[in-house]
Amino acid sequence: MLNFTIRRLILAVPTLLFISLVIFLLLELAPGDPMAQVPLTVPPEVKEKMREALGLGQPMHVRFWKWIVQFFWIEPQVLVDHIFGTSFSAGDLRVISWQTRSPVMDIVVQRIPQTLWVVGTAYVVAILIALPIGIYSAYRQYSWFDQMGTFVSMVGFSVPPFFSGVLVIVIFSVQLGWFPSIYDTTHVVNDWDSFVVQLKQMIMPVMVLALQITAQLSRFMRASMLDNLNQDYVRTARAKGLSEYTVVMVHVLRNSMIPVVTVIALGIPSIFGGAIITEQVFKVNGIGQLLIGAIQANDLPMVQTLTFIFAVLIVLFNLIADVLYGILDPRIRYD
């Protein structure tokens, strides 16, 4: 397993370099000009100097190499300096946002807590709800519980978040007045009362996101459990006199988790990507809203960095899912 992990990590380096090149080329070929929002009263020579200051006058390969060095070499040094108080990155030019004129990673670090509060909590809540529902629905196939779970899953798949988000705002915020309709990103949690306020403003966006994720995971869990409940090893385990709990929750569940782990692991990068639509509906100032704003402003360094971070997370959690396969199923070996 260790050798497999090391091989995959080594293979991930050229993979990520190729992904970064593709992202860079796609954004370079995209229409738009970062200087388009500059007022018309600015003289052309001033605009040209501004373009040079942004690095737009340099050849494409030079700008790509500078971005690679800044992302893979300078930004890790900045992190080390922040943690240990060193000065390795002193004087080095970081990846700068064209829109805010500040380091991209500083803005990302500021936005991640808001996204994790909402999207991360919704993902954890959805997993804790979806897995038991999927297990029991499969074990009690065609029961009233299974029929109800199927109905809720269809609703979760069918209703888009821009509709369900507005619906819960109308019901729980406008009509009942229980929760705030706008997420206050400036709120600081420092005592119990502030934590209660934070919890109240999280309930509605978490509810909307958890509905979608629960619908997906519970159906995967149910289908995987049904596939394993009819296998020969289940009948053999029951014939040996094992309890029904041991058969279902140990033998069947362990094998059934293999495809579900893939869905869960590949869905984790979306937590850091943020729920773009839901963040727009509830005004959550997270990563998703940051990406939308950067696209609208044609802020290529911000879009490029965020997109590449998502690619890194996908490659990483793909590896984690493969490692978990070997832990869940002893028949899988990577030697």
UniProtKB/TrEMBL annotation:
Keywords: Cell membrane, Membrane, Transmembrane, Transmembrane helix, Transport. InterPro entries: BPD_transp_1_N (IPR045621), MetI-like (IPR000515), MetI-like_sf (IPR035906). Its main location: membrane. SUPFAM superfamilies: MetI-like. GO terms for cellular component: plasma membrane. Residues 112-321 form the ABC transmembrane type-1 domain. It is found in: Cell membrane. The chain crosses the membrane at residues 115-139, 151-175, 195-215, 257-277, 308-328. GO terms for biological process: transmembrane transport. It comes from the Bacteria. It is a multi-pass membrane protein. PROSITE patterns: ABC_TM1. Belongs to the binding-protein-dependent transport system permease family. This is Peptide/nickel transport system permease protein. It comes from Ruegeria intermedia.
